[in-house]
Design a protein that fits this description.
two-stranded antiparallel sheet, alpha/beta
Length: about 220
């Protein structure tokens, strides 16, 4: 369970909290919950998200179950420090889509006394560490890993399986494009996809050989 840091008036440094997990695991929901508590405590709060994330709204950070909070879309991590000037708490959603500079930005803010709360996918659809998230998790004081429920087995899910054929690393989508899977279900889905791809390649080669028997 995450416990907020005890506020020491003599301590001039802030800290970093990372909320990570697969898609549909409640990362943004938890981010919004923490930010609302800080706002209720009359702390100055700002939240940022990458400008490319326009799935639900251009400006609002919106969770999958429709909770929302106003944010500032930014094209890169370097835009955040100036906009966060004077803040007590800074929230950052979809951190995996930012460049590596986001790590320095978060640490600089924390060193200036800001509480930084970051949410993002820890793995991409291939099961690899996603963008700057590993470095953010390594330098954070607190890391909370949340889980979805596997759509195949009902067990805890930590993988974001892409159902579409798009192979781009950055591909915004929802339930039609992604599903959360457990380790076992993700392994089976990956093997099935590879087998299907191999069979399709063989079928194309066979058709080509029939069309050009002399090649």
């Amino acid at each position: 369970m995450f416990l907020e840091n005890t506020v020491n008036p003599k301590e001039q440094f802030g800290w970093i909290e990372v909320i990570c997990g697969s898609m549909f695991s409640g990362k943004t929901e938890e981010l919004i919950r923490r930010l609302r508590r800080a706002h209720f405590a009359k702390q100055k709060v700002e939240i940022f998200k990458p400008a490319i994330d326009v799935r639900y709204d251009n400006e609002m950070v919106v969770s999958h179950d429709a909770n929302e909070i106003r944010s500032t879309p930014v094209p890169s991590a370097s835009n955040i420090p100036l906009l966060a000037d004077g803040c007590d708490v800074v929230g950052i959603d979809e951190a995996q889509f930012f460049d590596e500079e986001i790590v320095n930005v978060c640490n600089d803010l924390a060193n200036k006394g800001v509480r930084v709360i970051v949410a993002g996918l820890d793995m991409d659809f291939k099961g690899n560490p996603f963008g700057p998230m590993p470095n953010l998790m390594a330098t954070a004081e607190y890391v909370t890993k949340v889980h979805a429920v596997c759509t195949h087995t009902g067990n805890l899910a930590q993988y974001s399986h892409r159902k579409s054929k798009d192979d781009s690393l950055v591909f915004l989508g929802e339930v039609n494009e992604y599903e959360p899977l457990s380790r076992a279900a993700y392994y089976r889905a990956t093997v099935k996809k590879k087998t299907k791809k191999v069979n399709q390649t063989k079928a194309v080669g066979l058709n080509n050989s029939k069309k050009n028997p002399n090649v």
